[in-house]
Amino acid sequence: MDGGHELLRRAAANPQVLQWHTWAALTPGPALVIMGAVHGNETCGAYAILRAIDDLQHGRLLLRRGRLTLVPVANPLAVGQNTREGERNLNRRFVPRAEPQDYEDRITHQLAPLLAAHDVLLDLHSFHTPGAPFAMVGPRNNEGTREPFCRADEEAELARALGVDQVVEGWLDVYDRAARARGEPLDDGGIGTNEYMRSQGGYAVTIECGQHEDPAAIRVAERAIRGALALLGMADVPAPPRFDGPAARLQDVVLRESPEDRLVRQWNSFDVVRAGDLIARRADGRELRAPYDGSVLFPYPEAEVGQEWFYLAVPS
Length: 316
Fold this sequence. Notes:
By secondary structure, the chain is α/β, with parallel strands linked by helices. It is built from eight helices and 14 strands.
């Protein structure tokens, strides 16, 4: 949509106000909420959502049943700064607080009730380095204390219907390992929009649509929006091809220990590694080699010290 840049500029110019748009069909159906720009330098989802809003307003897209809420800019301050976060990472502690302490707490105070009023969340993101788009799902069904869940089958169906050729699972388990390595209490750490949605009885999928500045990422986000609407029977739109391959399970995370730590090459998500392959070197010369056959995920060469540098995944 031609006015997308202007609408993003307006949202960023007034970071004390959040905007969303809701359509409610008279025919009952699922309640779906779609969010963009949870991280301010990941705007492909915002552009795709703005185009969907324009299509709905001009009748090019018709809601047939259920309720659809579109949140193009979830973090206006971060968008205005063109940074991942405003004051902190919104997607690492998305838990309402009685007394909000920072900007992201105040966003959470507004968005958490909105998510809780829906059945399904689609959260649109992008990533730092080149790589293939993918969907992220949560835990398998379980009755544990960290992230109990009973809607894994529905979540997996949604992830496979969004037009991407990779599905990744196991995020919170590996995040917890990183937190322990940093000596942090688990508490609310690692709870993002998806985890909060599951805690409220819904289910959620994140789509990582591609590299931040790649225009193709917007098309991936648009396809994901239509894939969700088609699967849920909320609109008469063509369904993208379904992904029927195996998922990748996050297995390990490696933290950056020094600014002098270096990856040995430009790794992209889903680059295959064999056991023993050299991935990186520490500042003191130690070699980091793949402990098993798998793939590299989320490589971030500029990660801050103590933060996630890259992940390793295995076929699930």
